[in-house]
Design a protein that fits this description.
The complex is a heterodimer. By secondary structure, chain A is mainly α. Chain A is 76% helix and 0% strand. Chain A starts with a helix and ends with a helix. The relative contact order of chain B is 0.13. Chain B folds into two domains: 43 residues, no CATH class; 232 residues, MetI-like (MetI-like fold, Orthogonal Bundle), CATH 1.10.3720.10. The chains are: A mainly alpha, B mainly alpha.
Chain lengths: 275, 302
């Protein structure tokens, strides 16, 4: 009996390790390839560790593309989207959770509908609006539709509803208005929810491809994601440099994840159980 | 005390909370109205028009839809999309469930495994796509190199019509497993321990416990994860765009509906026609989601 159990445990570990291996293999391969010369990257059999470590590929990628611009565009647009959503979704989420106003439930149904409609249906009109406003190839173009989130409002409303009402009552008797209560009483309690929304929004802002790709075609307003995509399209691409670029592009998000991994995972799990 | 009761009975604020309510929902509501609600209806309208380069729309009635019904590429892309869904949902959810169940045992390094599985989820799709494309390369890819140990000769996985879609779907699954696993793991941890203790007293083995307790209790989470995977797979774009060259002979065999939509809307500049595609995609997703909810009762434990 005992032998049987230990065999089962070994099998469990083998499967888990295989899963881990498969999860990491592409990134390991990205790293070694990024440090090879072009010639070595096409060598058969492939080398696991580069013969000559080419740190210079990480410099080359900045010469090949305006990578520092991509980086700043991505960073700025992600920060604006995150801050905007935190502010707008939390005020609206609080109002939907606690305040009474005419048409509230009807407006909220519209929010839920937006949440369920596949995003492509908005894309062409959104593009034309941005074009009409003369905002193609600009930072506002990158952030505008993403600033407003039905999902974020829904998520935060759920969290606001979970806060006991007693906490606000004292403040009401003291004569605070809803905005004061929202800011002074509720927001400090919402920290976990706001972290969850920050994580989800940052992931979306940093990694999204299609919107930046269509809205900003001039190279100095591109994001990292679209920049990498434009490199991949070229047949003459130098693969090690491309891998170096890919690694730099994804690293900030991976670092962010590593720093807050517990919150990340709790946040994702929470959206699962709330949905 | 009187005052408190009164407040509690109604909402927290009474008469003049309308003003504050509208004030607080205004930014999001106006933004959603401009960038989502109006565009939603506009897209329907556009699907009956031809749109010029600068946005002028000319009414052409059902022409776009008639054209769609005759467009082989459109049917091919629809077929491909269904193939992606039919493979990615069951395989992806099964792999995620297996990993979640294994991680829910008393293994060591639980946190480390969970973190590692999650990395493909947070990695930028264009970066992941770029490296997978290189790994799938016919001549220099590591995949064909590994296959050569087994005496197998590899093909150009992404550029062969017969294999392209399958090569892409593997990456799609790879990108989603960690996400689904985290949600399923939370679902597993929500199953009351007392159920297992009772089963143990009844003498049920681990396998029996899995099928009579774990799986039924997990069905609500499995349902959620399946619906989410289904909807996102229907909209797959990034990874195909990154991995399959648009001039590849295999592009027609791996192109999804959203990819075709993208091409017509933003490469060929036939926005009216693309709008019609978006409408069809919208109805497909609605229909499939409704079916999912209909058959929910048959397998999801309430």
């Amino acid at each position: 009996m005992k032998k049987n159990i230990s065999f089962g445990r070994i099998l469990i570990y083998i499967l888990l390790l295989f899963g881990a291996f498969m999860s990491l293999l592409p990134f390991a391969w990205m790293l070694t390839t990024s440090l090879k010369t072009m010639a070595e990257s096409t060598q058969i059999p492939p080398t696991i560790i580069p013969n000559k470590v080419m740190w210079s590929n990480y410099v080359e990628v900045f010469k090949l593309l305006p990578f520092e611009k991509y980086f700043m565009n991505t960073l700025i647009s992600t920060v604006i989207i995150v801050v905007g959503q935190l502010l707008f979704c939390s005020t609206a989420g609080y109002a939907f959770a606690r305040l009474k106003f005419w048409g509230k439930s009807k407006i909220f149904v519209v929010f839920l509908t937006i949440l369920m409609v596949p995003g492509q249906i908005y894309l062409i009109p959104q593009y034309l609006i941005i074009q009409k406003l003369g905002l193609l190839n600009s930072i506002p173009a990158l952030v505008l539709p993403g600033l407003f989130s039905a999902f974020g409002t829904f998520l935060l409303k759920q969290f606001f509803e979970a806060v006991p009402k007693e906490l606000e009552e004292a403040a009401i008797i003291d004569g605070c208005n809803p905005v004061q209560i929202y800011w002074n009483v509720m927001m400090p309690l919402m920290k976990p929810a706001l972290i969850t929304l920050t994580i989800l929004t940052a992931l979306y802002g940093w990694n999204s491809l299609m919107w930046p790709l269509i809205i900003n075609t001039s190279s100095d307003k591109m994001t990292l994601s679209a920049g990498i995509a434009s490199l991949a399209g070229q047949r003459t691409t130098n693969v090690p440099i491309m891998m170096a670029g890919s690694l730099i592009a994804m690293l900030p998000m991976v670092a962010f994840f590593m720093a807050f991994q517990k919150k990340f995972i709790e946040g994702i799990a929470a959206t699962g159980s709330k949905g | 005390m009187e005052k408190l009761k009164k407040i509690n009975k109604k909402s927290l604020f009474n008469n003049n909370s309308s003003f504050w309510g509208y004030l607080m929902i205004a930014p999001v509501t106006i933004g959603l109205l401009i960038f989502y609600v109006i565009p939603f209806f506009q897209n329907f309208y556009f699907s009956f028009t031809e749109i010029g380069t600068f946005g002028g729309a000319t009414w052409i009635g059902l022409e776009n839809y008639k054209k769609l019904m005759k467009d082989e590429q459109f049917f091919k892309a629809t077929w491909n999309t269904f193939k992606y869904v039919v493979i990615a949902v069951p395989v992806g959810v099964s792999v995620s469930t297996l990993l979640a169940v294994l991680l829910n045992t008393d293994v060591k390094f639980k946190g480390a495994f969970r973190t590692i599985y999650f990395i493909p989820v947070i990695a930028m799709a264009s970066a992941s796509g770029a490296v997978w494309r290189w790994m799938y390369n016919k001549d220099f890819g590591i995949l064909n190199y590994i296959l050569s140990f087994f005496g197998l000769e590899g093909v150009a996985w992404l550029n062969t019509p017969e294999t392209s879609l399958y090569a892409v779907v593997i990456v799609m699954i790879w990108m989603k497993v960690g996400y689904n696993m985290v949600i399923l793991l939370a679902g597993l941890q929500g199953i009351p321990k007392s159920l297992y203790e009772a089963a143990e007293i009844d003498g049920a083995g681990k396998v029996k416990q899995f099928f009579s307790i774990t799986l039924p209790m997990l069905t609500p989470t499995l349902f959620f994860v399946s619906v989410m995977t289904l909807i996102s797979t229907f909209q797959v774009f990034d990874i195909i765009f990154m991995m399959v060259d648009k001039f590849s002979i295999a592009i027609n065999d791996s192109m999804s509906l959203v990819y075709l939509f993208y091409r017509y809307a933003f490469e060929f500049n036939e926005k009216g026609y693309a709008a019609a595609m978006a409408v069809v995609l919208f109805f497909i997703i609605i229909a499939v989601t409704v079916v999912q909810f209909r058959i929910k009762k048959r397998w999801v434990h309430e």
